[in-house]
Amino acid sequence: MSLIAKLAGSVGAPEPAIRLLLTIIAGYPIAAIYRLVIMHQASKPIHHLFFALCGSFLCVFNYGFNTYHSLIAIWVTYLLMRLLQKSPKHLVAVNFVFHMSYLLIGYFFTESNDYDILWTMPHCVLVLRMIGFGFDVADGQKGKESLSKDQQETALVDLPSLLELTAFAYFPCAFLVGPQFPYSRYRRFVDGEFRQCTGFVQTGVKRMLVGILYLAIRQAGSMVMPESYFLTDDYRNQSFIVRLIYLGIMGKLTLYKYISCWLLTEGALMCLGFTYAGMNDKGEADWFGCSNVKLILLETGNTMGHYVQSFNVNTNHWVAQYIYKRLKFLNNRTISYAAALGFLAVWHGFHSGYYMSFLIEYMIVSTEKQIETVYEKDVLPQYGHILNASVPFKCLKFAALKSYNIIYMGWCLTPFVFLSYSRWISVMSAVNYFGFVYMAIWFLIYKIYQFQKRSAMKSNNVLQVQDSKNSENEKKDS
Known about the structure:
The chain is mainly alpha-helical and 478 residues long. Helices cover 74% and strands 0% of the residues. It is built from 21 helices and no strands. It is globular.
C-alpha cells in the first residue's frame, strides 16, 4: 500500500479524498515559495512555468495518466484560439461544443451512483475556464462599444502563449475545485498589479482556519449521520418532524463539504496575493475577490435566494456573465434564467438528481418571489403598522423563515446528494413529498389570488366607466 492509501485507511476516508485534501493544502507552501523566490524574478516565463509545473504535478498526483484529458483540453483551446481568432462567432461555438462534448463523454464512461472523485471533477472546472477564455478572446476582437462593462474588463486583445494558457489552466490553488476567474485576472497578477497591497497573508490564514472548522464540523456530522442513513428504515420510522429536521441537517452538512474545500482553497489564493478586489470602505485592501462563498449571508439568510447569492459565488457569476447575459437577445429573463440553470445541470452530468435539484431551485425561487410580491403589495400596506411594531411577530417570522430555510435546502439538495432516481425518490417519499405538496398548495392559492385581483380590477374599471357616464349625463341634464 502507498503512504497515501495507509493514511486514508487510518482516518477512514477514501484515498481520492485524501489526495484532494492534500492537494488543496499544498497551495499554502506553493504560495510561500512563490512569494519568497519566484515573485522577484523579472522574467515572466519563469512565473508561468512555475505555476504550470506545480499545477500539472498536482494533477498527476491525483489522477495519474488521466491528466492527458486536461492537456488535450488546453492544447485544443490554444489551437482553436490561433485558427479562429479572426472569426469570433465560430471560435465561441466550436470551443463551447468541443469542451462540453468532451466533458459529457467523460461523464458517460465514468459516472456511477455515487459522487466519485475522478478526473472529470477538475475537468468540469477546466471546461468553464476554457469556455470563458474562448468568449474573452472573441470579445477582444470586437469593438469596445459593442461590449458590456464586464466584457470590456475580461476581453483579451493580446493572446497568451501556450505556456501562459497552461499556467492559467493549471493554476495550482484553483484548478481542482475552483474558483473561476478570467485570464485577465491571472495576467494582472503576474504583471504585479497586486503586489503593493498588504494584509493578504493574515486574511488567508484566517480563511484557512475557518475552512478547517467547517471541515471538522462536516466530518463529525457525517460520522454521526452519514448520507446512507437516509435510505434506511430507521430514518423512515422517525416522526415526521424529526425526519424534516434530519433532512435539514443533511443539507447543511452537504453544503459544508463544498464550503470547507472552497475556504481552504481561497486561503491559499489569498496567501499568494491573487485575490485582490480593490480597496474597501475603510481604505484597506479587499482580498475577497475570488471568494466562492459569502459566509455571513449564507448562515444568516432565510430564503433560497440568499443561498443562490452566497453559495458557489464565482460559478454563479461565470454562468451569469457567459450564459445568462449572453442570452439577452431572447428578451425574456425567465427563459434566460431557466437556460442558465439547465446549463448548470448538464455541466454537472447525466444523473437525474442534478436536473431535479436545479428544477426545484427554480420553482422555490419563483415561489419566493411570488410570496414576497403578495406580502409587500397587499399585506404590508394594510397591516404593516401592526406587524412591524410587534416583537412576537418578528420572532415568529424569524423562526419560521429560518426553519423553512434549513429544511427546504435539505429538500432541494436531496436529489443532488443521492443522484440516481431510485435513491432520491426514496428519501423524498420518506418525508411524504412535503416540498412538492407545499409548493402545489401555494400555486393554487396564488392563482386564486391573481384571479381575485383581476376580478377586482375589472369591477373597478366598470365602476369607473359607469361613474364617468353618470357624470356626463348629469352635465347634459344641467
